[in-house]
């Protein structure tokens, strides 16, 4: 009997089974290959800090990284690519390399470096899914790691400013989206009528960009102009994930999350109160240093001197 498989990944939102690109790749491939997985979100656990997601656990085997996980599943005879020709297999590898080189840096920048998106969407989301006190510093830690990764990926030193490579990042990403749109055409999937690993990778990369409520994203605007790519994402969600429901939190976790929210509200309330008191003290005339008026002092002195 085959060992049960558990996939540790970030949880879902925005109508997606996971908001994490690499986790989405593995989840989609598992659906395409008929793999039975138990999904174990790392949300609200200490694994948000210690785990490298996605992480597949099967018996004594622990596998990380989408490519390694897909290779492991193929060895278990769970292969979504078994009907591909040698030429199609080579095209798959080429397009996945294109996604990694051209599209991933722009996605990382959109969610983790762009100030508006990070402040309004990314940071609040990951903070709300991290246990206390990790929620205070984990998002900024992930943002710093992401920034370094972008600079290294684009061949720049860590001392370079991200603004120096932004234009090139988004230009490459839009070119990549155009190539994917041209390759897909009017088909449902990239190779014939059955989804493969390439479809899993493209879905994992595009779905968060398509579904997230981003404040500022020229890349999202460009994607939404490519109707066949957005339809591709919607079709996969409808055909393979429509029946999935978010995993409910265990009662203990719900209590923990409620207590964390109350604690955060209390800390914010007291912090605001202290700031208001401090402002009042600074603006209050009663607390300004008293400087005697020389004229009044002189007048008082004369009146008190005997004639």
Description:
By secondary structure, the protein is mainly alpha-helical. It is 62% helix and 6% strand. The protein has 12 helices and 4 strands; from the N terminus they run βαβαββαααααααααα. It has a 4-stranded mixed beta sheet with strand order 2-1-3-4, with helices on one face. It is globular and about 45 Å long.
Q: Indicate the low-confidence ranges by residue numbers.
A: 245-257, 286-291, 294-307
Query: Strand pairing plus helix content: what structural class?
Result: mainly alpha
The Rg value, from CA coordinates, equals: 28 Å
Shape: globular
Largest sheet: 4 strands, mixed
Number of helices: 12
Assembly type of the chains comes to single chain
Q: Strand order, main sheet: write it out.
A: 2-1-3-4
Mean pLDDT, all residues: 80
Percent of residues in helices comes to 55-70%
Strand content: 5-15%
Roughly how many Å apart are the termini? 116 Å
Which secondary structure elements does this structure contain, and how are they paired or packed?
Elements: E1 5-9, H1 21-33, E2 38-41, H2 47-50, E3 55-58, E4 61-64, H3 66-75, H4 86-113, H5 115-128, H6 134-153, H7 166-184, H8 197-211, H9 218-225, H10 227-241, H11 251-283, H12 294-304
Parallel strand pairs: 1-2
Antiparallel strand pairs: 1-3, 3-4
Helix pairs in contact: 1-3, 1-8, 4-5, 4-6, 4-7, 4-8, 5-6, 7-9, 8-10
